């Protein structure tokens, strides 16, 4: 009896199959059962059982003794932490930031969440030079002030965002800093509607910033920003660079989401209908 492409023998096929299983986990798929995995990937029951048991034996998966389902294991957490501590996320962003800085002349930033702020973990100065004397790296941007933070927090689930931000004191950084919670929520809604955030000195009175969200699957994981001195003559408008900024944000989203062709038989059945469409990177 002939076997399909997912049943071919060989060490590379086995490795590829194991990687497909690990990469199948996301916000919707948090565990696998043996028969379920066999059906989705076109495997025999015995092959699926050996594959899951092998991954669990190395710590990449963990078997629940009650449900007999396999979820992500501690080796996944350990490797993710090692990757991040070695600068993995900033290393992915920096080539994209460098190209944005080169073509726009503006400073480009990539920031990730840090409590009620976002923190800059990568920055590249454009041809116009640094926008200011002190570095952007490790600077915190509060959720209520500026495009850089708004491009991340606007795309959180509203209930999660309110739980994180509601009732927190909001410092004024300039005369343009939004202060009222309802005003800030309106700005979040506007950002989601247009797919980007623009600020004119809410956090730094001398700065203008344009930012877009970056996603990891459905969930926002940070923001990518172009920053300029609002009092300088740049020869063009900051919004002229929205398309390449969006393109860079989408490219980083693709890298973080590991976009790839699905296995031939995968139907993403979860026992409750079909998988919903993923959250778009831009509405």
From TrEMBL:
Domain IclR-ED: 75-258
Record-linked InterPro entries: GAF-like_dom_sf (IPR029016), HTH_MetabolicPath_Reg (IPR050707), Tscrpt_reg_IclR_C (IPR014757), Tscrpt_reg_IclR_N (IPR005471), WH-like_DNA-bd_sf (IPR036388), WH_DNA-bd_sf (IPR036390)
Domain HTH iclR-type: 12-74
Domain of life, source organism: Bacteria
Annotated stretches, region: Disordered: 250-283
Keyword match Transcription: yes
Gene3D superfamilies xrefs: 3.30.450.40, Winged helix-like DNA-binding domain superfamily/Winged helix DNA-binding domain
Swiss-Prot/TrEMBL keywords: DNA-binding, Transcription, Transcription regulation
Protein name: IclR family transcriptional regulator
Lineage: Bacteria, Bacillati, Actinomycetota, Actinomycetes, Streptosporangiales
